[in-house]
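Deliverable D2.4 — example input (structure tokens):
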């Protein structure tokens, strides 16, 4: 897969603002500061998403349109960058508002083809992660785990983490990625292409 064009479309707070766009969608979700925006930029091979060292930069659902080609196909799609969860320096009311916004958007979105759960590979699952996992499965949303920050550990350690998460989740769709050196970019792009190809077949 190759992304030949990409750009910011709009920020939304609900599904009604997205619904007129009849395009397949891949969602990027995860905790604050795990590298969702950096992953988006790396996949697009250009800076389309704002990044920052401070957790909580993304507070709305940011939509990006891409034009892609690969395996004899060409199409347009939406990549959506969701607010990170688990950031302790926001009020309970604001966090609950974000949660309701994200759940409402995803639950009512018939265009979602895959959810990419972006996860810092140096961490282990906690209560919030378990809740997200339960919610995704309860809604029947197909998801894949993208283990970021691969450059922060040895290659052997990152591959062992990949195997461990595959065992714990009971699925093969676990990828290792580094936005610093691009490790794993090709594999994630191919995975996205397969999801979008199924959507448009």
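Example output (designed residues):
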């Amino acid at each position: 897969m190759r992304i030949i064009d990409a750009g910011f479309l709009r920020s939304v707070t609900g599904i009604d603002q997205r619904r007129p766009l009849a395009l397949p969608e891949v969602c990027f979700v995860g905790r604050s500061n795990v590298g969702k925006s950096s992953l988006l930029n790396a996949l697009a091979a250009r800076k389309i998403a704002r990044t920052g060292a401070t957790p909580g930069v993304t507070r709305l659902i940011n939509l990006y349109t891409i034009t892609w080609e690969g395996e004899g196909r060409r199409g347009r799609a939406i990549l959506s960058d969701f607010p990170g969860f688990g950031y302790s320096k926001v009020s309970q009311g604001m966090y609950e508002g974000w949660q309701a916004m994200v759940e409402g958007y995803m639950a009512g979105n018939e265009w979602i083809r895959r959810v990419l759960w972006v996860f810092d590979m140096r961490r282990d699952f906690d209560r919030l992660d378990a809740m997200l996992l339960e919610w995704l499965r309860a809604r029947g949303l197909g998801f894949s785990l993208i283990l970021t920050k691969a450059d922060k550990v040895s290659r052997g350690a990152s591959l062992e983490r990949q195997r461990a998460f595959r065992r714990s989740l009971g699925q093969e769709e676990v990828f290792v990625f580094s936005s610093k050196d691009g490790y794993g970019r090709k594999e994630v792009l191919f995975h996205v292409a397969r999801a979008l190809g199924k959507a448009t077949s």
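The radius of gyration is 16 Å.
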